[in-house]
Amino acid sequence: METNNKYSLSVFTENHLAILQRVLIILNRRRVNIESLHSSESEVSGVHRLTVIIRSTEETAIKLVKQIDKQVEVIRAFHHLEDDTVFQEIALYKVPSNAVVNGINIGSLIRDNYARILAIESDFMITEKTGHQEETHDFMKKLEPYGILEFARSGRVSLTKQLAQMSALN
Amino acid sequence: MNTQENMLLAVTKNDNVTSQKLSGADAIVQSLIREGIDLLFGYPGGAIMPVYDSLYRNANAINHVFTRHEQGAVHAAQGYARASGKVGVVIATSGPGATNLITGIADAQIDSTPLVCITGQVASHLLGTDAFQETDVIGISMPVTKWNCQVTRAEDIPEAISKAFYIARSGRPGPVLIDITKDAQLAEFDFKYEKCVGIRSYNPAQKVKTKAIEKAATLINMAKKPYLIFGQGVVLSEAEKELKVLIEKANIPAAATILGLSALPSTHPLHVGMVGMHGNYGPNVLTNECDVLIAVGMRFDDRVTGDLSRYATQAKVIHIEIDPSEIDKNVKADVALVGDAKEVLRVLIPLIIPNKHDSWVQEFATYHQVEKEKVIHNDLAPTCSELSMAEVIHEVNKITNGEAIIVTDVGQHQMVACRYAEFNKSKSNITSGGLGTMGFCLPAAIGAKLGAPDRQVIAVIGDGGFQMTIQELGTILQTGINVKIIILNNEYLGMVRQWQELFFDKRYAHTEMQNPDFVAIAKGYGVTGQKVTKRKNLNKAISEMLASDNSYMLDVRVKREQNVFPMIPTGASVSEVWLSK
Ligand SMILES: Cc1ncc(C[n+]2csc(CCOP(=O)(O)OP(=O)(O)O)c2C)c(N)n1
Ligand SMILES: [Mg+2]
């Protein structure tokens, strides 16, 4: 059995929502687990980039990319190992604003962990932390004693370590 | 999706830019006419009525074939496309009309048949509200179309249609669907039509790579036991002549996949038969003996390869294929030649050194002799009084000399017809290969006759599959189309019964059929029919049928419990062929 790795699929598409559905159909047909999904515009106007994090063998990743690439509205699709990309995720945490545990005020915990406060309401505040999943997860563990009212984490935003990825658009 | 934005990215060729004010429905019909369409298949209903009204007013320019079921319309369009090499066009209404198309669209997708399907949709302000006869046709058809899109504004219709035709027929062909809301059909706009000649994100024709071709030529030139398998790609790219030149020049034995049949005349000395589960003995077994395997326009379907881990592992594989996603999908290619089969072969042939492989070619003949003694002889000259399916096909060959188009359904009769039918011309074998869709045959035969009106079209159908689209006899009645129907009637879902016999201890669960009087039914639809039960009447019945100027049906009673051999059981290797139980 070939080992499963985490792959980042970068899919450059025309600005269409329908293509998102087509890509998901291809992944679902092969029962590939999608760990995260992110869609945004790219450096080229009108071209969207879709970043899908999957866990699969390299062989499956290659086959998936070919099947995605052949969709009419896909400009180019690529697969990368995690190490070949630079990526970030952003996490938001809603916590009680005046919480104190063991004499430590939540405000100093936030500062010490390079998180920042986005909004303060009368009884809660929303803080933000950017980082890899492990870091945002660790921070959540630290906040837990204060009580987390709500939590959300984004999909992965990633760029490759190559100079330029998309030469197809000339 | 935003169709307008979408359209901006399509490159168009501007032939005739003078605009005229038209309704969306008239624009649909005019767009089809600009694409050279003079025939389409369909079934009316509320959400497509404006288009039908336009067809009524444009009946002199475009002929509409009214089938008895939307599934029949798609299969007919498939038969038309495969017999003519053109794009088949289908129209249907929203909701149930559109969902009835899905089986045929899925069939066309897996068998790479170019279709443009146009469905009506509820008015755009009702989308997503569960309005009467609203279904998410875009969502339902997405997994089985090469491309689809919804149009909600009349002015987007011409570009959607031009894009649809371009996508359907270019690269690896396939079905596309455009869903057009009723308000878009009714609104008026300034119509002008520009043919699509390219789409930024879509690259259907890759440039052939010279280096890889040279490598392939070296492999072929050095090969001691080269073997070629050709698929439908040869038919779709019209590379029949190039295929023949290549195998003759290098003296390569060649076998067909089921959809490749008829790309090379059956009688060609290097045509060694068909590969696959019920293919010929030598072509399957010797796949695991050849040193270079050249696959042209085929996709190594599991019914061709059997157990992949024991498939041609000794051979260097050269894969000529237009769809890059097929390369290495099932069988790893040593040399991948991505491109149109005709173009690749044209560049390859001059690099090939004339060669002889007499003893290797002879090996196929030796295996054929064994197959003849163990299988073919019993099939063609059975000792029992009942007719065999093979005898019937053999009698047809004698009278047609391989000139007819043979359309088959799915089951034992299909495998027997594909094994025994002779083909002299390309585009003569029309069957549902990848999806195995029962009910395909009768409507596909109607479409094939319309696509090749000068040819004899013979539908070979099982008694089961016939009853899946039997209502298309009504289409024959109304259009007066001349197709010949041979029911190979074993009063069983024969292929399933065979599996029950071989793998389920003869527990015949729901495969025996009590059938109606097919001759009487045909008569009801104005089609002359005969029941044939005796060997001595067979030739005369077939002759009468083929001599008739009208559609004609034979209900041929064949031996009820007969099995199709050779057979490669599921999970076995191509070298583990069963010649009998
Ligand atoms: C729509 C559909 N349903 C079920 C099947 C499964 N199936 C494959 S062959 C077959 C039997 C076909 O019987 P018949 O048409 O009488 O042909 P025969 O095998 O007897 O020649 C069946 C049920 C299928 N291929 N397609
Ligand atoms: Mg039957």
Structural description of this entry:
With 170 residues, chain A is an alpha+beta fold. Chain A has 2 domains: 5-86 and 159-169, Alpha-Beta Plaits (2-Layer Sandwich), CATH 3.30.70.260; 87-153, ACT-like. Chain A, domain 2 (Alpha-Beta Plaits, 2-Layer Sandwich), CATH 3.30.70.1150. Helix content of chain A is 25%, strand content 44%. In chain A, a hairpin with a 3-residue loop joins strand 8 (116-120) and strand 9 (124-131). The longest helix of chain A is centred in the N-terminal third of the chain and has 13 residues, at 17-29. Chain B has 581 residues and is of the alpha/beta class. Chain B has 3 domains: 3-190, Rossmann fold; 210-363, Rossmann fold, CATH 3.40.50; 385-557, Rossmann fold (3-Layer(aba) Sandwich), CATH 3.40.50.970. In chain B, helix 2 (24-34) crosses helix 3 and helix 4 crosses helix 19 (441-451). The interface between A and B is medium-sized, with 23 and 24 residues.
Give a summary of the structure in a few sentences.
The complex is a heterodimer of chains A (170) and B (581). Chain A is built from four helices and eleven strands; from the N terminus they run βαββαββββαββαββ. With 170 residues, chain A is α+β, with helices and mostly antiparallel strands.
